[in-house]
Design goal:
By secondary structure, the chain is α+β, with helices and mostly antiparallel strands. It is built from four helices and nine strands. The strands form two sheets. The protein has a five-stranded antiparallel sheet. A four-stranded antiparallel sheet has the order 3-1-8-9, with helices on one face. A hairpin with a 2-residue loop joins strand 8 and strand 9. Helix 2 packs across helix 3. The protein binds ligand 3AM. Ligand 3AM binds next to strand 3.
Length: 180
């Protein structure tokens, strides 16, 4: 049976609560459909539908090739895809640790390709999705208004998530971890 998988950096509970408080204290009303704090993560590589054997091979590849060591992750302020004046995704950006996260994503890409997934055609841009917006909306004022999120976290693993989609929205289940 196939499952819907993606590779990510999971957030600690401290960051999850800290970010929820940071947004709450600034009484920021996120436009669109906010992602629930329980779902917050940094996507490294969306894999999509995978069989159990393929998941095992991705994990083996990561075990062998992931040479990034533990590092400190810092955040900056808000940003938007494709651009703040016509945003469909509002996100929190990554500051310190960008090189390491990018290196993790590059190994995730190699793992995906070597196990038969199609190459990703979009450039990697580390981000934490806060809201999905339809129709596209101008969030330039909000992006400028919110300063950097000050907390940092130690990253010591890559997490493989299984995504369950339903009418109530997505639920992400941590199914495997690769230690850095
Ligand atoms: O939370 P973010 O936005 O970083 O957008 C989806 C989400 O990333 C992305 O994978 C993460 C977990 O669902 N995603 C979903 N479908 C995708 C697809 N077909 C996708 N990324 C690329 N291609």
């Amino acid at each position: 049976m196939s499952e819907r998988l993606f590779l990510a950096v999971a957030l600690t509970d401290e960051i999850r609560h800290g970010l929820a408080a940071f947004l709450g204290e600034r009484t920021i009303r996120l436009p669109g459909r906010p992602t629930p704090p329980d779902n917050w993560h940094l996507t490294l590589r969306f894999l999509g539908s995978a069989e159990a054997l393929q998941r095992d091979r991705v994990l083996e590849f990561l075990d062998e090739h992931l040479v990034v060591g533990p590092f400190t992750l810092g955040f900056v302020g808000l940003g938007a895809f494709p651009k703040p004046s016509r945003a469909t995704v509002l996100w929190l950006g990554v500051g310190r640790g960008t090189d390491e996260v990018t290196a993790m994503a590059a190994v995730g890409e190699e793992a995906a390709i070597s196990t038969g997934f199609a190459p990703e055609d979009r450039p990697f841009h580390p981000h934490l999705t806060l809201s999905r917006i339809r129709p596209p909306t101008n969030v330039a004022g909000l992006v400028e208004q919110v300063g950097p999120f000050p907390l940092k976290m130690e990253v010591d693993r890559l997490t493989v998530y299984r995504s369950h989609l339903s009418r109530e929205g997505a639920r992400y289940e941590n199914v495997d971890e690769v230690l850095l």
